[in-house]
Write a structure and sequence with these properties.
23% strand, binds zinc ion, 21% helix, three-stranded antiparallel sheet, alpha+beta, 6 helices, single chain, two-stranded antiparallel ribbon, 173 residues
């Protein structure tokens, strides 16, 4: 089976939210064996582990366990509720220090690209672009150069699927 496409989380191996395993495990949703398991947040009453990518993409896991991969309150506003449903029920989440927050731009959710510090942003040539973001908290804006990947001030990089603009979410440990 081809690996599903997650438009809001396009490279989930790079972000380490999916793990390739040496031995197959059973997905609790479809009850089939999988070599790739989901390692990110899943908000449900039951403790659910080892979901396969297919059950996330189809919405089967969110439905079966009445769960969500992203808190719908912790995201920028988008007018189309179908997009929110795709984000919360059919998109792998990411792991933040605190409550994960999903950025939006051009009235759609952005693609999550991964965790970054100031050095990574410099390497990508994005420091000016992310500094201009009006959605960024003033304190964080003043302390952007203190961002470090894996450090106590962590950046999470997003990119608009429509205009290509890069946006950050920031939190602290
Ligand atoms: Zn499955
Ligand atoms: Zn945009």
């Amino acid at each position: 089976m081809p690996f599903p496409v997650f438009k809001y989380h396009p490279d989930p191996f790079k972000t380490k939210i999916f793990k390739r395993r040496d031995a197959a495990v059973v997905c609790p949703c479809c009850e089939k064996e999988t070599f790739v398991t989901y390692e990110g947040p899943f908000y449900s009453v039951e403790e659910v582990e080892n979901l396969c990518p297919g059950c996330i993409a189809s919405g089967a896991a969110a439905k079966k366990f009445d769960g969500a991969f992203q808190d719908s309150e912790s995201a920028d506003e988008v007018s189309d509720p179908e997009k929110l449903e795709e984000l919360t029920c059919r998109t792998p989440g990411y792991c933040g220090w605190q409550q994960e927050y999903w950025r939006a731009h051009c009235d759609d959710y952005c693609a999550f690209l991964g965790c970054v510090g100031w050095r990574e942003l410099e390497e990508m040539g994005l420091t000016a672009e992310v500094s201009e973001d009006p959605g960024l908290d003033a304190w964080f804006k003043e302390n952007l150069t203190g961002l470090s990947n894996g450090g106590s001030l962590q950046g999470y990089l997003f990119q608009c699927l429509h205009c290509g603009k890069h946006l950050l979410h920031i939190d602290c440990d």
